[in-house]
Design a protein that fits this description.
Radius of gyration: 18 Å
Shape: globular
Order of helices and strands: EEEHEEHEHHHEHEHEEHH
Structural class: alpha/beta
CATH architecture of the largest domain: 3-Layer(aba) Sandwich
Strand content: 25-35%
CATH superfamily of the largest domain: P-loop containing nucleotide triphosphate hydrolases
Number of domains: 2
C-alpha cells in the first residue's frame, strides 16, 4: 500500500565495549521509496544494515518491519526482506541456477523454477545458469547476488554497494530495475553507495551518517544547494573532511 511504513528504525545504538559504532539513529522508509544511506568508511552504514538483518543486535533502540519488531518476530520479519552486497559471496561450488534454487527453498518460494527462469532472464544470467558461481566475473557475481535478493519478492531490500563491480551501462539498467521493483511491489529499498551520481539518480531521500550519527537528510537533488554545495559529491567530500578523526 503506497505510503505504508515498511521500515522503522528508532534510536538504535550499537556499542562494542567502549567504542560506539552507532549512536542513536532513527529513520523510516515507506513503500515505494529508495533511501540512500551515506557516509565515509566507518560511519556506521554496514553496522546498521546488519542490525536490520538481525546479524547484530542493537545495544539500545528498536527496529520494526511492517509494524513488527525484529527482535520479537525475527523469523517473520526475516521472510519479508532480503539483501545484496558486493562482499556477500554465494557458494562458489554451486552453479548460478543451484544458488538461486537453494535461496528459493530457504524462503519457501512458490513456483520456484519459473521464478528462477524469470530472474535469469531479467539479470542477463541465462547463459551462466549451469556455470559455477566461483567462475563468474565480478560483474556477473553482482548480478547473481541481485537476482538472489529479489527471489522472495521482499518488501524490504537492503543493498550495500550493489553495483560496485558493474560497468556503467549495466549499473544504469540495475538502478532502473530496482526503482521499478520498489514501485511495482510497494517495497522499500535501503541503498548504500560511494557513487554520488548513482545516489542522485536512484534515491528519493538520503541520510548522511558521520561517526554513527545522522547529521543531515533530505532530497538528494536539492540538499547540496541547501547546504551551499554544487552537487552531492561535493557535499559528501565536505562532510568527510569536517568529520572528526577517530
Amino acid at each position: 500500500m503506497p505510503g505504508e511504513t515498511i521500515l522503522k528504525v528508532k534510536n538504535i545504538v550499537k556499542n562494542y565495549d567502549a567504542k560506539i559504532a552507532v549512536a542513536g539513529v532513527s529513520f523510516e522508509i515507506k513503500a515505494g521509496e529508495v533511501v540512500g544511506l551515506l557516509g565515509q568508511n566507518g560511519a556506521g552504514k554496514t553496522t546498521i544494515i546488519n542490525m536490520i538483518l538481525g546479524i547484530l543486535e542493537p545495544t539500545e533502540g528498536s527496529i520494526e518491519i511492517l509494524g513488527e519488531n525484529t527482535k520479537n518476530h525475527r523469523e517473520k520479519t526475516a521472510a519479508k526482506m532480503n539483501f545484496a552486497a558486493v562482499y556477500a559471496h554465494l557458494p562458489a561450488n554451486l552453479t548460478v541456477y543451484q544458488n538461486l534454487y537453494v535461496s528459493g527453498l530457504l524462503y519457501s518460494v512458490k513456483n520456484l523454477k519459473s521464478k528462477i527462469e524469470k530472474l535469469l532472464k531479467e539479470y542477463d544470467l541465462e547463459t551462466f545458469a549451469n556455470t559455477n558461481s566461483g567462475l563468474l566475473s565480478s560483474g556477473e557475481s553482482s548480478r547473481l547476488n541481485l537476482a538472489k535478493s529479489t527471489i522472495n519478492d521482499p518488501r524490504l531490500l537492503l543493498l550495500d554497494e550493489p553495483t560496485a563491480s558493474l560497468d556503467p551501462s549495466i549499473s544504469r539498467i540495475i538502478r532502473e530495475r530496482i526503482k521499478k521493483y520498489a514501485k511495482e511491489n510497494d517495497a522499500a529499498v535501503l541503498w548504500t553507495s560511494h557513487n554520488m551520481r548513482e545516489i542522485e539518480a536512484v534515491c528519493d531521500k538520503i541520510i548522511f551518517l558521520s561517526r554513527g550519527l545522522v547529521i543531515m537528510q533530505g532530497d538528494p537533488k536539492t540538499l547540496p544547494q541547501e547546504r551551499g554545495q554544487k552537487d552531492l559529491e561535493e557535499l559528501f567530500i565536505k562532510i568527510a573532511r569536517e568529520a572528526p578523526s577517530a
